[in-house]
Structure formats: structure tokens, C-alpha cells
Fold this sequence. Notes:
The protein is of the alpha+beta class and 219 residues long. The protein has two domains: 3-118, CBS-domain (Roll), CATH 3.10.580.10; 121-217, VC0802-like (2-Layer Sandwich), CATH 3.30.2130. It contains seven helices and nine strands. The strands form three sheets. It has a four-stranded antiparallel β-sheet with strand order 7-8-6-9, sandwiched between helices. The protein has a three-stranded mixed β-sheet with strand order 3-4-5. Strand 3 (74-75), helix 3 (80-90) and strand 4 (94-98) form a beta-alpha-beta unit. The longest helix is centred in the C-terminal third of the chain and has 15 residues, at 203-217. The protein is elongated and about 70 Å long.
Amino acid sequence: MNVDQLIAPSVPVLSTEDTGDRALAVMEENNLTQLPLVAEDQYIGLVQENELLEWQDTQSLLSTAENHLNKPAIVASAHPFEAIRIMNQMNLSILPVIDNERRYVGTVTKDTLLKFVAETSGIDNPGGIIVLEIAPRNYSLYEIARICENEDVMIINLQVHTNEVGKLEVTMKLNRTSLEAVVSSFERHDYHVKEVFGEEANAADIEGKYNLLMNYINM
């Protein structure tokens, strides 16, 4: 899937003929703090509320500030994961989408990207979650998958990140909620099972793990 398939149709654009006051009003009306500035279909830059509030004269035209704007953007043919990376690094709530000639195509938002992650990562599917803590040198996706397969369990989604002590945390969403057998199998193979969220876990625990996973994906 390309990122242009996730464009949010409700994000307005600003013109170089708009004033700072007009931009602030449009942001408030749409509950946004960032909006793209576009002139003759060309993407100029990203107007941000916190920068506008520092203007001495918010009745000035946005054209007076276009040379000072940040210009974060993503090419329409890029993958949505690249949009997530850029938005996280730059602390953005929206990201303009452009073509190869920097013509403005549209905008993706955190909401549209979160929906994409939820629908494509298997998070919405029923099943339990197991978190393994592994030394980097011992990580083997093949072996982890083989242990699950031997217990007739399918990995729906898998995320890996390095925790604060330098070990890998492998978070697996599985297609079963009854996880006792696969947990025992991991432990027999000397894996440290850090957390388990299965049929014995309450709703609050599952929701908490979901939120942690979303934070990792930076949504």
C-alpha cells in the first residue's frame, strides 16, 4: 500500500494570501495545530500554530513567512511506515503528501495512520499476547516461529524493540488466547517470558499492552 491511499479528505490547506489570523481560525475550526501551505498546487511548507502565536502581527500574510517554514513531506508512492517514522521524528500530527514535482497531493494524519496499523497488523484479531525478553545475540525469528508452530499457534503480528537494559523485547500477537502450552514451550527452550496476556488476563491488562504497543509504533 502507498501512503497516498491513506490521505485524509478533511484536512484543509492554507494559501499564501491567508493571514496568520485566518490560519489560526482554520486550525481552531478543524481542531488541528498544523496545516499545509499551498500555492498553485505547489507545497510550500507546514504552518504551525505555536509559530503563528509568536508573530508580532498575525494580520500579516503567510507569504511573508514561507521562506522560514519547515517543509516536511512524503512522496505519494512511499510506504505508510515511512510516514510514521517522519511524523515521530518531527513530532507532527499531520504530514503533507507530494508527487515527484512537489505538487501537493493531500495530507495523512495520525488518525489515518493509526487506523492503517490497527487494520493491517492483526491487533484487531482475537488472540493473546506474549512478550519475550532476549539478548540480541540469541534472537532467532526462525526458532521463535518454529516453537509457535510446534504448538499449533500462529503469529499474527510481531514487533521487536530494544529496552532500557539493552535486551530485545519481542511482542507477539498470537491467534489463540489459551497460551499455557506455548509459554511452557518457550520456557523449556530457555526463553524469558516477560509478560503474557491470554484468556486469564483481564481487559485492563490487554488494553494496557495495546497502548504500550501503540506507543512503540509511535501513534
